[in-house]
């Protein structure tokens, strides 16, 4: 008996048993099923979840109508860069600030009668996908040392303060120190094996004039915390060291000559490495964390699933013609990782199984490879990077390029950010100094949203900023990536979360922060 000879009631009962991804595939295969789903609110909500690359949050009591309205407003807000709430903050420099998870942190020195302390302020950003809703929620800590980075994992109630300790004597190493604290209370985290994790760098004594030691990145995923520290020399050259810790057991493993990284899980890490021109390709011994190429091509490596501190790796090679690259950087994905459960009260969030990895590369004007722009982004699904326990240790570009998307960016593109399957960057105008402005681009890299994005392009004229720009990005003839843009006042940097764009602007002795929130919250009680 044909499935389509069943009554509508039976078909709806069958469809109600499908997970969102299976429901999406069924709708793409049958116009009849698609019509049934479009006319049933609970099914359409799950269909839209899969269409947008989202997963459903914990069980809640809100109706399907309310959840669908919230999802559609969130979808349209990001697709058109139309925000529904805005918060503004102002800080006096010097200050250290950034975003981790759904939190904005800011640290600055405060004078006391007999000493200086550091005041760390934590702002929980708006999230209209979560109930109950509230504005910026504020925490404050007073700390006796200088904070360089802050990372927050609310699912584990963990906040990590990163510090660089410079020894007073020449015969002691520079230390990277991670303080593991409870996010909601002013004490050490109870699950940490040690309240402080220390990494002994290869640099000793007081840093000479012209040299600088800085913390580049700190990330947490499950029991794994990663720290990268860079020593920059006077001529601009330098070296970056990466340390991986299991903060629940205290074990650690160091790696050198890395540039940037992104944790994929608590046992795997993607790393962009700077090969050593004078060193032969690694033999794969336990002392090496990644393969090195003598021709200096930058590579991606990741740890296997067997354990975070085993040295088995796989290298993914870029084309030899890219050896002339002048700058390369991995864009950490700020969406939830595989191990991170949805926060309580969250209606939906980005599906961790669909996360992307992105690497930006800059080429000299007079030496860029043929067919690409001076600035490009290489994008690949995390799932395409097979654990290093399987297959060859080195993957040639010819063997993995078909899984990559190469996006040509404008020459003035800056601040490339990745969240889920959304790539965001900005350009600052070259207009008159008295009227500076910035343009924000949001690229939706989800192929299932093709028809929706093209309908928006037909419905509204292209955004304009000194010249018309394309509303649909053409990648190898597949026009499904839409460039949404919005003009804003001039700013210097940007962060992105699943719900917010955070814009930073430094002017006239102060730093201004604009927090733009997308979506629309549920208006009715459960």
Notable traits:
globular; mainly beta; 5-stranded antiparallel sheet; 526 residues; single chain; 7 helices
Describe the structure in your own words.
- The protein is built from seven helices and 32 strands.
- Strand 8 (158-165) and strand 9 (173-182) form a beta hairpin.
- The chain is mostly beta strands and 526 residues long.
- The chain starts with 7 loop residues before the first helix and ends in a 9-residue tail after the last strand.
- Helix 2 packs across helix 3 (31-38), helix 2 (20-29) packs across helix 4 and helix 4 packs parallel to helix 5 (64-80).
Major pleated sheet: 5 strands, mixed
Query: How much β-strand is present in the residues?
Result: 35-45%
Q: Structural class of the helices, strands and pairings?
A: mainly beta
Number of alpha- plus pi-helical segments: 7
| Cα gyration radius (Å) | 24 Å
Indicate the overall shape. Answer: globular
Q: Kindly state the mean pLDDT as a whole number? A: 81
Q: Major sheet: order of its strands?
A: 15-16-17-18-23
What is the straight-line distance between the termini?
A: 42 Å
Percent helix, as a range, is 10-25%
User: How many beta-strand segments?
Assistant: 32
Low-confidence blocks of residues? 276-308, 460-480
